[in-house]
Amino acid sequence: xxxxxxxxxxxxxxxxxxxxxxxxxxxxxxxxxxxxxxxxxxxxxxxxxxxxxxxxxxxxxxxxxxxxxxxxxxxxxxxxxxxxxxxxxxxxxxxxxxxxxxxxxxxxxxxxxxxxxxxxxxxxxxxxxxxxxxxxxxxxxxxxxxxxxxxxxxxxxxxxxxxxxxxxxxxxxxxxxxxxxxxxxxxxxxxxxxxxxxxxxxxxxxxxxxxxxxxxxxxxxxxxxxxxxxxxxxxxxxxxxxxxxxxxxxxxxxxxxxxxxxxxxxxxxxxxxxxxxxxxxxxxxxxxxxxxxxxxxxxxxxxxxxxxxxxxxxxxxxxxxxxxxxxxxxxxxxxxxxxxxxxxxxxxxx
Length: 350
Description:
Blueprint lengths: L3 H7 L3 H14 L14 E2 L4 E3 L11 E6 L4 E4 L2 E4 L6 E5 L5 E3 L1 E3 L1 H9 L2 H4 L7 H11 L6 E4 L5 H8 L6 E5 L14 E3 L14 E7 L8 H11 E12 L4 H6 L14 E2 L2 H10 L2 E9 L9 H17 L2 H8 L15 E8 L1
Parallel strand pairs: 1-5, 9-10, 9-12, 10-11, 12-13
Antiparallel strand pairs: 2-8, 3-6, 4-5, 6-7, 7-14, 13-16, 15-16
């Protein structure tokens, strides 16, 4: 068992201490490519926009806020400095959503992430459990589905593989290679919180959004578009991080790995989702706490590795961040094995 006494004994020498520190850095890179101690990433200046009110409900009543510990965000070999005043994460006093005080522009993120999108966001996850959930909730073997953030069409492929009938359409900011073999419908290009671009005008039985709603700049506009895209009585299935889960509650919302990703802007709970759903003619009919889809089929070796990193994080506390940043890393929170820090929710259009 990893205890404070064991850690102290292990770090008793300078060499062991350096190994421990470097291990902390390398284990803390959730979603970020590791940067070597002597390698300097290329600085990239981001245009920042201040967020003056809760993007979910429009309230200016912030109940609490915390400052992110990061000085910069490293993606591939690019370092994006944070604003001099830092970025705060505020909790809305009305709907309980968390949101960042400053966000980079959509055009900037598209430019920075776009050239790596094909390699970084192609899905290798098994999405058949999601399709089984959709099928069970819908209750029929035929359904027209629109997957928002479809990437290379993994969910649409799972739809076809299970024998479901109906349209299989995709909505994304770019057309990924490999999508065509799964597409049996239309492709809608753009951001869901922008005005809808050209589409068929035929609403869908089910619209899915897996790891999408945390990216919204204007959630109210996105949910208005969801109502347009979903037929009366249709369903919207959402997966995203749960701001009320163990890690943000135990270690602080500002330390949660999910919040510290540059492209994530708003963070949801059951209450905040129900609030915006009701405002746009939806009701929550299903709710379940889950692990992130990439963590559900980890090998025992990987789970053991995650457990060791998590124990080190637990013992070191906020010093974990300091050690990592001193050596040029982010010190991002490691994955905690078996912790369910996401939720799956289904909304019904009234």
